[in-house]
Amino acid sequence: MSETNPAATAPVSADAAPHRYTAAMAAEIEARWQDFWDAEGTYAAPNPKGDLAGDPELVARPKKFIMDMFPYPSGAGLHVGHPLGYIATDVFARFQRMTGHNVLHTLGFDAFGLPAEQYAVQTGTHPRVSTEANMENMKSQLRRLGLGHDKRRSFATIDPEYYKWTQWIFLQIFDSWYDDEAKKARPIAELVAQFEAGERAVPGGRTWSALTEAERADVLGEYRLAYASDAPVNWCPGLGTVLANEEVTADGRSERGNFPVFKSKLRQWNMRITAYADRLLDDLDQLDWPEAIKLQQRNWIGRSEGARVDFPIDGERITVFTTRPDTLFGATYMVLAPEHPLVEKFTPDTWPEGTRDAWTGGHATPAEAVAAYRAQAASKSDVERQAEAKDKTGVFIGAYATNPVNGERVPVFIADYVLMGYGTGAIMAVPAGDQRDFEFARAFELPIRCIVEPTDGRGTDTSTWEDAFASYDAKIMNSANDAVSLDGLPVVEAKERITEWLERTGAGEGTVNFRLRDWLFSRQRYWGEPFPIVYDEEGIAHPLPASMLPLELPEVEDYSPRTFDPDDADTRPETPLSRNADWVNVTLDLGDGPKKYRRETNTMPNWAGSCWYELRYLDPHNGERLVDPEIEQYWMGPREGLPHGGVDLYVGGAEHAVLHLLYARFWSKVLFDLGHVSSAEPFHKLFNQGMIQAYVYRDSRGIAVPAAEVEERDGAYYYQGEKVSRLLGKMGKSLKNAVTPDEICAEYGADTLRLYEMAMGPLDVSRPWDTRAVVGQFRLLQRLWRNVVDENTGELSVVDVAEADIDADTLRALHKAVDGVRQDLEGMRFNTAIAKVTELNNHLTKAGGPVPRSVAERLVLLVAPLAPHVAEELWRKLGHETSVVHEDFPVADPAYVVDETVTCVVQIKGKVKARLEVAPSISDDDLEKAALADEKVVAALGGAGIRKVIVRAPKLVNIVPA
Questions:
Q1: CATH code at position 360
Q2: Which of 345, 359, 690, 772 is the 20 to 30 A CA-CA neighbour of 88?
Q3: Omega of the bond prior to 454 within 30 degrees of 0, cis?
Q4: How far is it, in rounded angstroms, from Cα 168 to Cα 322?
């Protein structure tokens, strides 16, 4: 790579020490080198082929793909907490380049979504205008930090050439089904072929040829990995859209805007992520992720083994899933989720004779009771509904089911503590063994039958119990019929026996259940990817052909969603796209002649674009296919240590554990199954950085006041003379404690900011920001500069000295630093790496006299990943014509890394009597001889005999006198 020397054009400062490293000098150096890197393409990572192919020597190196989680371009810009992860990945990427890797490191923008649309609605500014302005501001801020991104690969999810492929992936998922026998996704055409050939039975018993087109579409909809269905959703009238469970707070309000959220049934697009539950669980074991994140995903997927049990009712059945089929004889009532689709079917017109007043909720008919209770339940979040401490509520639906093991009639209730999103949305209630069921049974005067021998002395009379008794160690009792008896069996054996009986009698079967629900994939908003789906006059969904992609988001005058009274649960969404009749109603030829169609007017959720963006970084300008297979294999394919392939390092916040990460894993597996990629996992190694926190100051009203204007006096804090409280928390504009990177760069320079953020503590730990402490890293750079450059003349102050003539202490300090910094950077322990650089730099400062050139060069190379601008400047001043970015990282001489001597403690009766300086390699025998010959040891023994000598070379000798 041909490079010029921009250092030659550096201006001279008019300071007292005219060539001292100052903020002004740092700003000039940093801007100049950033321009140079851009002009030279210093950070361009070559692909093995295609339009980004480049230096064959670089391609031949081991690859390293390093990624940050997609940033959202906020209008508030960056504060100093935002770049923590970006600086860390930049340091690591630079180190990897210097250790012989072809490094792909770039950054794009996740630019669709609710925040931009909300801002647009409030200000009247089109979301594209505000989003693009925010991106430009963020790019400017990030550039100032000197991040080494390959800018050729950057993009935003709002670019049509990007979301063309988001739409294409959706169509791949729509045109696929999950084959449980093959354990993989397959094209839907293969399923159709099985139906046509009679190899697979058509539900309902008819032949495929006998079905109408609409009936076929309904059948395939039960298999497709992307499907539309009428399902309970979180409807937020105040936002005019439905929300995913994860976007609803624990108190049943929208995370964005804090509006009430209600359960409502709407037709929505879903992704059948549940088909991949087992694989999503099993493959976690092969990923290098924090155990806490793996645990969150395992809990979210929630695999549990048990049995499906059918309770007959009115000639049909209610199916439940239970992990404790051994307690089936103790089921004395049933509960359906209020949203359960069978509720209406089994609700009679009148109350059955003998219905207790406590069961009716005071309503004249079952229908009235059900309707009133459903309205009540719809206003609560799932978290509220399952809260342990709340009073149990519900109503009898007026129907009885039959317990299959004993033939008893059990009343059927609806209650909000049962969720449609778990299991079958129905439970058999065993109040003796479940606390929630116990409380419900007490409230509604329902039987409680003891079916597990209590081991805590409470006895078997449940009328005296204060709570339920649950145990996996006790034996079963009161659980027998003419065909099967569980009495006296331990739990595990009882579960096996009753499951065998259920399967033999056709009353149920052993099965596995998951907490994971299918992914709600529709949003009633404007600012998102349009679905590449149209509907014919019969309402059948048709995918657009690839040749019609991208289906671009149309420009509309009114992009506001129709919002409603936030408390009106009975409203229904009206999407902005539905008001654009010319766009919605189209005539298309999808292969069978021109026909009229209606476009889908929902948009995809903001998660869609971030499900696959790692692939676009690989081949960002490919307009013909998602990614070239050879390029994808090169950067992300499986290899030793990466059995499922994926990104080598992915850094971001732990808050995305069960949303983005789970969704991206699902999309990767579908694309892998269909043969589009070689990597079955998107991210092999995950690292969660901590948070930079800041003090929040609040006045007597609890309102945040500007942190920069607070004064500290005698341990208390004052704002405009009024005492304020102080609490460590998040940093942000609304809390009036945000510090921007622009401020710190202006005062000290970007290299100082980089060093400070990396030196604050371990990367995965949250830490408080202290602007006053930043100067410490600025002084480190000033000392570094002074060790290489004469502050008065601007000339090099180093001397040319042969390695053999450098004093041993300096060589030892140098090589220990090289060895330690190399290990720390490899392990992403950037704070300790900076400490070792500081220690070496201080040694050179204290040693006095000129620094040997070879030592100065290696010091600059150690600093280069951490403070790249000053390193480039010093590297050129040291006479080098190539960028420090691609120089080799120093290697330590092992002879200087090992200490010449170590201190050995000699103890007598456990008390230290002498300390010896010995060689690290000394043998036990030689160390024992040296200890016994020491004058202090001889004097301490006073001629006494020795019973035993314990030696732990080279650091300990323990002498036990006779």
A1: 3.90.740.10
A2: 772
A3: no
A4: 40
Domain co-membership, 500 together with 554: no
Same domain, 351 and 437: yes
pLDDT for 264 equals: 84
Q: Please tell me the pTM assigned to this model.
A: 0.86
The least confident of 251-265, 594-608, 750-764 is 251-265
Which DSSP string corresponds to 812-874?
Answer: HHHHHHHHHHHHHHHTT-HHHHHHHHHHHHHHHHHH-SPPBHHHHHHHHHHHTTTSHHHHHHH
The reply to whether 282 and 228 lie within a common domain is yes
| Integer CA distances (angstroms), 355 to 85, 313, 314, 533, in order | 62, 17, 18, 50
Q: What share of the chain is helix, strand, coil (3-state, %, to 5)?
A: 40, 20, 40
Q: What is the CATH number of the domain that holds 925?
A: 3.10.20.590
What is the mean pLDDT of the segment spanning 852-878?
A: 98
Determine the residue type at 902.
V
The pLDDT assigned to 21 comes to: 97
Same domain? For 291 and 319 the reply is: no
The predicted-structure confidence for 471-529, as pLDDT tens digits, reads as follows 888 999 999 999 999 999 999 999 999 999 999 999 999 999 998 989 999 998 899 99
Long-range contacts of 799-804 (CB under 8 A, 24+ apart): 799/850, 799/851, 799/852, 799/853, 800/852, 800/853, 801/852, 801/853, 801/854, 803/854
Q: What is the mean pLDDT of residues 272-283?
A: 97
**What pLDDT is attached to residue 454?**
94
Count of residues making up the chain: 962
DSSP 802-828: -GGGS-HHHHHHHHHHHHHHHHHHHTT
- Number of structural domains, the chain? 3
For residues 386 and 487, membership in a common domain is answered with yes
What is the residue range of 336's domain? 303-514
Tokens 């005062």 belong to residue: 747
Q: Is residue 341 part of a domain?
A: yes
Give, as one character, the DSSP assignment of residue 406. T
| Confidence at residue 388, expressed as pLDDT on a 0 to 100 scale | 60
pLDDT in tens, 576-600: 999 999 999 999 999 999 999 999 9
Q: Are 97 and 149 in contact (CB under 8 A)?
A: no
Residues 248 and 191 in one domain: yes
